[in-house]
Amino acid sequence: MVASIQPKVAIVEDDEILAFMLDETCKSAGCNVVGRAANAADAIKLLRDAPPDFLILDFALDGDHDGLELLEAVKRSSPDMFTILVTGWDINDIAARLDGIQPDRILRKPVMPHVLTNLIETSFAAQQDRRDPGELETVTRH
């Protein structure tokens, strides 16, 4: 039997209840949640220690840096990381603040679990399709 590859997800959200909901939604969809952070400084450490395939990040974060500043740092160092910006702010306001570097998707809060899981599943499948089959690891059990 061949085990499927699970998408690795990191969550950066300062609202503990929403972070928990995002974590549980991702896990129920078969994702490997590599960790959660509530601010940009902790997120940078998490991303360095456990690089994910997907980063779900809030626009408004605790600390000195907001989600857009974190997004810019992430996209500069890991341009292939799929980023999902979640926000309670008006999407047009967020779009007006974006300068150059863009998230791969923006989702408005409250995030519907099926919307998030569908986005991750389809995006991860597309990532896997673009990779060289020789790069993919499979585990065979006897």
Instruction: Find the count of extended strands (DSSP E, 2+ residues).
Output: 7
Percent helix: 40-55%
- Cross-sheet strand order for the largest sheet: 3-2-4-5-6
Biggest pleated sheet: 5 strands, parallel
N-to-C order of helices and strands: EEHEHEHEHEHE
Q: Tell the overall outline.
A: globular
Spatial separation of the terminal alpha carbons: 7 Å
- SS class: alpha/beta
The radius of gyration is: 15 Å
Amount of beta strand: 15-25%
Number of distinct helices: 5
- Indicate the low-confidence ranges by residue numbers: 135-142
Mean pLDDT: 88
Overall description:
By secondary structure, this protein is of the alpha/beta class. Helices cover 42% and strands 21% of the residues. The protein is built from 5 helices and 7 strands. The strands form 2 sheets. Strands 3-2-4-5-6 form a 5-stranded parallel sheet, with helices on both faces. A two-stranded antiparallel sheet has the order 1-7. Strand 2, helix 1 and strand 3 form a beta-alpha-beta unit. It is globular, with a radius of gyration of 15 Å. The relative contact order is 0.18. The C terminus is likely disordered.
Tell me the layout of helices and strands.
Blueprint lengths: L1 E2 L4 E5 L3 H13 L3 E6 L2 H10 L4 E5 L8 H11 L4 E6 L3 H7 L7 E4 L4 H18 L8 E2 L2
Parallel strand pairs: 2-3, 2-4, 4-5, 5-6
Antiparallel strand pairs: 1-7
